[in-house]
Structures are given as structure tokens and as C-alpha cells.
Amino acid sequence: MGRKVLLVFSVSSVCGATDAPIKLKFANYFPPTHRLSTLFAEFCQDINRKSGGKVNISYYPGGTLLSAPKMAAGVLTGIADIGLSHFAYSRGRFPVMEVIELPLGFPSAWVGAGVANEFYDKFRPKEWDQFHPLAFCASTPSVIGTLTKPVRTLEDLKGLKIRGTGRIGDIVKALGATPMPLEIVDMYEALRRGVLDGNLGSAEQLEGFKIGELLKYVTASWRTGGCFGFYVTMSKRKWDELPPDMQKLFTEVSNEYKDKWGIAFNGIDVGGIQFLKNHGGQVITLSAAETARWVKAVQPLIADFKKDLMSKGYKEQEVDAWFNFIKERTEYWKAQEKARKIPNIYEY
Are 181 and 164 in contact (CB under 8 A)? Predict the structure, then answer.
């Protein structure tokens, strides 16, 4: 699973090219067949087609141009013009937006996406001054998956080596396990060899990265699992080079894909659980009393985040305002998800 095969998807315009189209490179670390890879192949095709040949995006899925940890730096240096990754792979680069990865109880990717995009629009963290973000999303809530040991209580996690990067790794530690910050492309082999005992990640990874072939148990710990905060971004320099009509096009198409991204993420969670079951795996549901214990165990991480950001110069009132905003908008997007009947495997 760790081997990277060079696959370049050229998604050229079908509507006739101009004499000198703007050529851009989009880097994505998800495997080429992963739903989120095919989704952003469609994004590139839409831009190319709607630009009438003014833009030609070449698409590089599967980490063939940039790996996930190198994505943000690679976009700034021009290795890629557009990149998709998440905050945990470059911890500390986007400290304010890392609030999305705290154990705040987002019930779905679609809800998290709505909150993340609104959060950025309202607070415009200065950490993004060198970038021009096109869209944000949250993964579906992280759940515990294990190879051989069923996890029904916090005590069952002690001594287990569980993959978790960034603030998700902090959650692993708070729950009593040992966090292992492996890159996701190395996870399957690490599980197969027994280097890892399990993973804290969204259920979609069970099928998207095939680890449901190996894991035997998934504990539906979504209320405390946290999520990964994703971004698709250009550098501000590259954005400023685009003519105004193409900036307008990118904004319009990106706004469409904010919604599509969250819906797609929700949908592949359903597929991940089914993939696990098809391979003989079992889903464990925590009791209400045990869930309360898990929620209590991760609460100190929120206080730690607040102290961390205050040490970086942010005022207590600012950080409190972020949390209040997230709480309010989470309830709004939860209601919208129910009203629109968007599929979600977790009840809340």
C-alpha cells in the first residue's frame, strides 16, 4: 500500500482551447480510485470545461506530485498550483483552523464542512495570508478500529498502538492508547505487519484505504473521535496571477464543491462500514455511560488548545468566540442536514 505509482490524469478542456491556456497542477494524496479523488477529478473537468479553454488543469492523485505532509509547502513553492490535504499533516502551520480537529462532536463531514467554511469566512485567520483557500471540509467523525482486540471501554485501549496524526493523535493519547503518527499511505502495511494495533479515523478509510480487510472491530466512538480538517488551496501568488473572470469561475465552482465534498464524505462512511462487515468485521456500540466517560476523557484537549493559542498571542476572548461560533453553527448545520435528508450513519 505504501508504493506510489505515477498516475497523471490530464483533464483538458473539451470546448476548444485558447492560444495560451493557463496550465495548472492539482495535487491530491488520496488513491486514484478513492471517491474523493474522483470528485476532484470532476472539479478539474468542470473548471476546464467552463473556462472555455482558458484553463487546463492536470490532475495528480495518489501522492504522485506531492505527499500529504508536503502539500502546503509544495503549493507555496509552486510544485503544485492547487493542493488537497488536511491540517494534521502540517501541525502548527494552520493553528487556528486546527480548532476543527478538536473533539467537538461533529456528527458528519457535511456538518463539519459547513462549520469549517463559515469559520474561515468569518475569522479569516492570518495563517492563510500566503494562501487562497478554495474550500474546506471535515472528515466524518473518527472511530476506533482494532485488529484483534474489541474495545468496549477506555481500559481496553491501554497498551494499544493506534494511528493518529496531529490533534487526532492527542485524542488517542487522551483515551489511553499510544498514538502512532504514520502517514495514511503506510497504514495498511503497518497494520498487516502488526506495527499498529489499530486506527483512529473516519469509517470511510475502511474501504478507501482497504484497512477494513484487516481490522476486525470498529468502536463507534464518534462523539469523541474528532475529525480531520481538510482544505483545497492555491497560493495567494498563483491566485493573483489569474484574470478576474477565472477567479470568479474558480470561486463559483469551489462553492458548488463545498457541498458536494461533504455529501460525498458522508456517503463513503456508509460504504466503509459495509466493507468492514463484508470482510467479517464487527461494529461495537458504546453504552451511554461509557460514551460519557470517553467525552470526559477528551475534554482537557479543548482547554489545552485554548492555552496553546493564547501562548501564540491570541486573546482568551477571541478563542472563546471561536468555540461559541462553532457550537452555534454546528446546531444550524445539523438541522439543515436533517431537513435535506443527507445520509449519515450516526444518529444524533
Answer: yes
Taking the C-alpha atoms of residue 251 and residue 239, their distance in angstroms, rounded to an integer, is 11
| Span 287-302, pLDDT tens digits | 999 999 999 999 999 9
> In this predicted model, what pLDDT tens digit does every residue of 121-142 receive, in sequence order?
999 999 999 999 999 999 999 9
| Cell output for 25 | 497542477
- Strand-pair partners of 231: 85, 136
Closest residue by Cα to residue 343 from 289, 252, 273: 273
Q: Sort 335 into a burial class: Cβ within 10 Å, 0-12 / 13-18 / 19+.
A: exposed
CB 108 within 8 A of CB 51: no
> What is the rounded CA–CA span in Å between residue 250 and residue 133?
11
Domain 142-226+271-339, CATH 3.40.190.170 — does that match?
yes
At a CB cut-off of 8 Å and minimum separation 6, what does 46 contact?
253, 256
What are the residue boundaries of the structural domains of the chain, listed by start?
142-226+271-339
Task: Give Cα separations from 271 to 34, 201, 202, 264, 275 (angstroms).
Answer: 12, 15, 11, 11, 6
How many CB atoms are closer than 10 A to CB 174?
Answer: 21
**What is the rounded distance in angstroms from the CA atom of residue 194 to the CA atom of residue 129?**
42
What is the rounded CA–CA span in Å between residue 92 and residue 50?
36
Angle between helices 288-311 and 316-339 (to 10 degrees): 140
Instruction: Say which amino acid occupies 286.
Output: L
